[in-house]
Design brief:
mainly alpha; 497 residues; two-stranded antiparallel ribbon
Length: 497
């Protein structure tokens, strides 16, 4: 029995969250039971992700044939160092977000709508994990739509009416992105007659001269670029993060863009890269240019935001620029830096958005002005925000420093010393917008709102501090993150040969 369970872990990673979504509605009369079930599901998925990562590190890639139909005829779930690493990020964040949701969700959603919110959250969780573990290109699109449709619903649940506008804006842009991905996958199927990723990678080098391949590449990159908020395709992100419920913001900001980056890496390096890079397409240079523009634009715009969640949203655009910068270097060290920042950004931005959610829970406002003096009334929440901010800036002994250190090394290895300087400039810009909040919350005269507030509930503070401490722990002990990121980067680069 135990052996059969272990053999089916790749399928259970997706099936368990998928089954929990309709159960949320079946158990709608008991909201606490729904929350308990979803929490257990996320922790179970986290345990499965850890087991799969350990198996991959010890024995190599894991292949699972759905329904017993061997690839490429059937749908294959294939786990290697790259997606095992990403699955760990997604499940780890979800396992911390659900305890946080217990007190946070009722602030935005009341009564009978709470189970619906959890159903959408579990569907989004399912879609993200499905994209991560599947070895079938069309399945990527299917799970992309599952996660996207549920995200539109999650964003629309915010208290502010602007959450509906943000959700609709994301729906329009997300639909365009999904359509582009589907068209690109369709072109690949026309060229090769297969949808299995490994099979596609084997067959595409035979059709490198066909322009349809280049068209498919363009469609897929633009479509995924919309999903990961790559500059200048990021317009949906600021409002989506700002007006969604705090729980949804934490989960989406920490996981959705990370999975989109993984899909980009999988298509560019594993599937299409070996066929296209031999044609001299300057993908790396294009990625670097867009990364720098996103890095600087996101950081500059964040400085002038009055809404703290929008400020962090624009900061996320800048952080996505750091990830794309590492990808654009097209080297093992560059990919390692990008994958490190994938993990580290999930921790730092998760901690920051959780701390902001605590402020909003007590203040009822996202305005930086209304936070005047609140740091003295909510010292634990304020300390969590400061620690997350230091990590975002890249102060030593935090995960942010580890990411930027490897990015600088990757830039210098390629001889791009001006880019190393730009990485440091990005950190200085982060100091400016993080300091604005610190100055207002601690040194300004308390506002009428802040004078009457008290510390956030423990049910929200404990998950927040778990991520804060993770920012410190993985900033000091980098054995796991650096080692797995290095193995994942080498896996991707080997597929280019």
């Amino acid at each position: 029995m135990a052996h059969a369970f272990l053999d089916n872990l790749p399928a259970l990673q997706v099936v368990i969250p998928l089954l929990s979504a309709p159960l949320c509605l079946v158990l709608a009369r008991w909201p606490r039971l729904v929350w308990t079930m979803c929490t257990l599901v996320t922790w179970t998925a986290f345990g499965i992700a850890l087991a799969l990562l350990q198996t991959v590190l010890a024995e190599g890639p894991v292949s699972y044939a759905m329904g017993g139909w061997a690839a490429p005829w059937g749908i294959e779930y294939r786990i290697d160092a790259v997606n095992a690493y990403v699955a760990l990020i997604v499940t780890g964040i979800a396992a911390v977000v659900l305890p946080y949701a217990y007190r946070s969700v009722p602030l935005y959603i009341h009564g009978e709508r709470v189970p619906l919110f959890y159903a959408l959250l579990m569907l989004c969780f399912t879609g993200l994990l499905g994209m991560t573990v599947t070895g079938d290109a069309f399945n990527v699109f299917v799970f992309l739509e599952i996660s996207s449709l549920s995200m539109y619903g999650l964003i629309s649940q915010g208290r502010d009416r602007r959450s509906l506008t943000a959700s609709f804006q994301y729906l329009v842009m997300g639909t365009i992105g999904g359509t582009f991905v589907l068209i690109g996958i369709g072109f690949l199927y026309v060229l090769t007659g297969t949808l299995n990723m490994a099979d596609l990678a084997a067959r595409l080098p035979d059709v490198t001269q066909v322009r349809t391949l280049h068209t498919a590449f363009a469609f897929i990159v633009v479509g995924i670029g919309l999903k990961l908020a790559m500059f200048p395709l990021h317009l949906w992100l600021p409002n989506a993060y700002a007006y969604a419920p705090s729980t949804a913001t934490v989960f989406i900001a920490s996981t959705a863009t990370k999975v989109a980056v993984y899909i980009l890496l999988r298509f560019v390096y594993t599937i299409m890269g070996p066929a296209l890079f031999s044609e001299g397409i300057p993908y790396g240079q294009i990625a670097i240019v867009l990364a720098v523009m996103g890095l600087l634009t996101g950081s500059f715009v964040a400085i002038f935001q009055q809404n703290i969640k929008r400020m962090l949203a624009y900061s996320s655009i800048a952080q996505i620029g750091y990830i794309l910068l590492g990808i654009g270097f097209a080297s093992v060290l560059g990919l390692q830096a990008a994958l490190l920042h994938l993990f580290n950004h999930a921790l730092m931005k998760g901690a920051l958005f959780m701390a902001v959610g605590c402020f909003v829970y007590r203040l009822g406002s996202m305005s930086i002005e209304d936070m005047a003096g609140v740091g003295r009334r909510m010292p634990w929440t304020f300390a969590a925000f400061v620690m997350g901010g230091l990590s975002l800036i890249g102060v030593p002994l935090t995960v942010g420093f580890v990411s930027k250190w490897y990015l600088v090394l990757a830039a210098l290895q390629k001889g791009y010393w001006p880019l190393a300087v730009l990485i440091l400039i990005g950190s200085l810009l982060a100091v400016v917008y993080i300091w604005r909040v610190v100055e207002t919350a601690w040194f300004a005269k308390p506002s009428l709102r802040a004078a009457e507030v008290r510390e956030a509930p423990l049910a929200m503070l404990i998950p927040t501090w778990i991520l804060v401490l993770a920012n410190i722990y993985f900033g000091v002990n980098t054995t796991m993150t650096v080692g797995v990121a290095d193995l994942a980067a080498r896996t991707l680069m080997e597929s280019m040969r």
